[in-house]
Amino acid sequence: MQKIESVSELLTRINGLKLNGKSIGLVPTMGALHEGHKALVDQSVKDNDVTVVTIFVNPIQFNNREDLLKYPKTLVEDLVLLKSWGTALVFVPDEADMYPKKPLIKLDFGKITEVLEGKFRPGHFTGVGIVVMKFFNLVKPDKAYFGLKDFQQYLIIKELADTFLIPVKIVGISTQRTASGLAISSRNRNLSEKGLQIASNIFKGLNMAKELILDKMSIDHTIQSTRQFYRQVEGLEIEYFEILDPDTLDTTENTRSQPLLLSVAGYVENIRLIDNLYLQPD
Ligand code: AMP
Q1: I need a surface site. Which of 38, 169, 205, 206 has the fewest CB within 10 A?
Q2: Contact assessment for residue 227 and residue 206, using Cβ atoms and an 8 Å cutoff
Q3: 3-class DSSP state for residue 266?
Q4: Global pTM?
Q5: How far is the CA of 215 from the centre of ligand 1 (A)?
Q6: Whose CA is nearest to atom 11 of ligand 1?
Q7: C-alpha 207, offset from chain centre
Q8: Are residues 199 and 275 in contact, defined by beta-carbon separation less than 8 angstroms?
């Protein structure tokens, strides 16, 4: 596995791979790697000649400075894991190389970022969009892998690739969970044992909502009951729980002829966690 730290070196290496006709898979991450990231890397290694993983905690996607400072960093362990997962190339740029100047451009994804994360983290998706666009331009991947845990992010990346005709296939990978159902996240490292236990209720709530919908309860009632469930969990502070159309992120009536997205964000021990459940139609 080769570790590259500068943009110019990465460009040279990618040019070489392209000249040799190698297919390239890209897995962008912020490090503190875990089994969730592994699922993305595994799929990329399967699909492509060469897998490029990026590790970069992108400052411009954090609207909260404390959240950025608290973000876990475990580079030494990350490199060991990436090598064992079959990564060919890891790109670990520094901020000055990625942002030689502060970008003036803002990306506005319209109504798909007026809800969920976009609503509660102003500027987050413009930051995600800009950094992923940079990675697309540098790595020129055939395929790029994103987790469905961050469902809204997956949607905006697809929008980005479609709008700018970027010749990349966006692949969504299903959410990896611990035995308790908690979505695996780098942020879980900042939780105590007790916190992890409390956080497992996030997935419990999603499952409860799913059961209610399968039992033909209306969307409105399901939302109210699930929010009520979350309210009574001590130590869990829910920011939002919504049920939306996964294509448009519009609110929806329960027809069950369409897929549904159940989406939640909240805080445990001051750590912000999110989860999503995609419900197939009947
Ligand atoms: P992050 O390092 O948290 O920015 O995540 C990098 C990529 O891994 C994103 O596409 C995430 O959606 C994905 N990811 C993070 N956690 C999981 C998980 N538990 N299951 C599947 N994908 C994940």
Answers
A1: 169
A2: no
A3: strand
A4: 0.97
A5: 31
A6: 147
A7: 20
A8: no
Whole-Å CA distances, 85 to 47, 141, 186: 14, 19, 18
At 267 the three-state DSSP class reads: strand
Atom of ligand 1 nearest to the CA of 186: 3
Catalytic residues: 37
Query: Helix, strand, coil % (nearest 5) of the chain?
Result: 45, 20, 35
Ligand 1 centroid from CA 100, angstroms: 27
Q: What is the number of the ligand 1 atom nearest to the C-alpha of 146? A: 10
Compute the mean pLDDT over every residue in the chain, rounded to the nearest whole number. Answer: 97
Q: Which of 149, 206, 272, 273, when mutated, tests ligand 1's pocket best, judged by the most ligand atoms within 8 Å of its CB? A: 149
Residue with the bigger pLDDT between 253 and 224: it is 224
Sign of the CA dihedral 267, 269, 271, 273?
Answer: negative
Instruction: For residue range 25-58, list pLDDT tens digits in order.
Output: 999 999 999 999 999 999 999 999 999 999 999 9
Q: Kindly list the protein residues whose Cβ atom lies closer than 6 A to any atom of ligand 1.
A: 29-30, 36-37, 39-40, 146-147, 149-150, 173, 175-176, 183-186
Ligand 1: which residue has its CA nearest to atom 13?
Answer: 147
Tokens of 17: 């791979």
Q: Round to whole Å and give the CA distance between 259 and 154.
A: 16
Query: Do residues 153 and 126 make contact, with C-beta atoms less than 8 angstroms apart?
Result: no
DSSP 106: -
- Other Cβ atoms less than 10 A from the Cβ of 8: the count is 9
Q: Distance between alpha carbon 88 and the CA centroid of its chain, in Å?
A: 22
Task: Calculate how far, in angstroms, residue 19's C-alpha sits from the geometric centre of ligand 1.
Answer: 31
For residue range 200-241, what is the model confidence (pLDDT) as tens digits?
999 999 999 999 999 999 999 999 999 999 999 999 999 999
Is 52 within 8 Å of 25 (Cβ atoms)? yes
* Ligand 1 atom nearest to CA at 27: 7
Cα–ligand 1 centroid distance for 217 (angstroms):
31
